[in-house]
């Protein structure tokens, strides 16, 4: 249960960080200058091209070493970075690339007339994003974001390779100590399944709320 709590903390933190990065990345790709668009494209391409396990190892070890080298260069002592924070940052960085593409596609699905009408009313970019873009894109983005959330909960298992005590590592240690491999690994699988099923119920209700007033798929047909 301690491992489950750590996994959920990382999943929530990484998903939230990914949403922030994804929102900025989507706007950078769509409305940024040439340099911003190129940098965002490089970021999303590299993250989606490199296996997540390799990225986690690279960011976790090389990233913490780089931070300490910078601190030493500035005259400060080396610091031990909290494993929970490092896990959130590493997975959030990965989630951000995928969230960028999900949100970019959702924004592009908004009818152009709504955006032009908002500009005609003289709305500032911030006000237009809050009143027009975000509410209109949410129904289109939710299926992709829901998938990213489920991926986030499962990607926490990859942090076991760097020694962070999330659900998978705690399960492996308990199974190794008791030799009850079947019991503990089945229990861990059941916990992951519970998270997925519970998340699906919540996400379905959120999607239903976001699509209120919109025709259902059957009605559209």
From TrEMBL:
Keywords: Cell inner membrane, Cell membrane, Membrane, Transmembrane, Transmembrane helix, Transport. GO terms for cellular component: ATP-binding cassette (ABC) transporter complex. It comes from the Bacteria. This is ABC transporter permease. Residues 4-203 form the ABC transmembrane type-1 domain. It is found in: Cell inner membrane; Cell membrane. It holds the Pfam family BPD_transp_1.
């Amino acid at each position: 249960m301690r491992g489950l709590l750590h996994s959920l903390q990382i999943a929530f933190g990484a998903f939230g960080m990914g949403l922030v990065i994804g929102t900025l990345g989507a706007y950078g790709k769509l409305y940024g200058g040439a340099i911003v668009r190129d940098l965002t494209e490089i970021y999303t391409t590299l993250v989606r091209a490199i296996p997540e396990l390799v990225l986690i190892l690279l960011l976790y070890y090389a990233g913490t070493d780089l931070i300490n080298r910078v601190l030493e260069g500035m005259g400060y002592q080396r610091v031990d970075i909290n494993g929970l924070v490092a896990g959130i940052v590493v997975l959030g960085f990965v989630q951000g690339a995928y969230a960028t593409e999900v949100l970019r596609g959702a924004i592009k699905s908004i009818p152009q007339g709504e955006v032009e009408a908002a500009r005609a009313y003289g709305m500032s970019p911030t006000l237009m994003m809050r009143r027009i873009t975000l509410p209109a894109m949410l129904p289109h983005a939710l299926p992709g974001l829901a998938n990213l959330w489920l991926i986030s909960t499962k990607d926490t298992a990859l942090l076991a390779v760097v020694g962070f005590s999330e659900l998978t590592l705690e399960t492996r240690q308990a199974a190794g100590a008791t030799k009850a491999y079947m019991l503990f690994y089945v229990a861990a699988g059941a916990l992951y399944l519970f998270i997925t099923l519970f998340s699906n119920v919540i996400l379905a209700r959120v999607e239903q709320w976001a699509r209120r007033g919109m025709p259902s798929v059957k009605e559209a047909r």
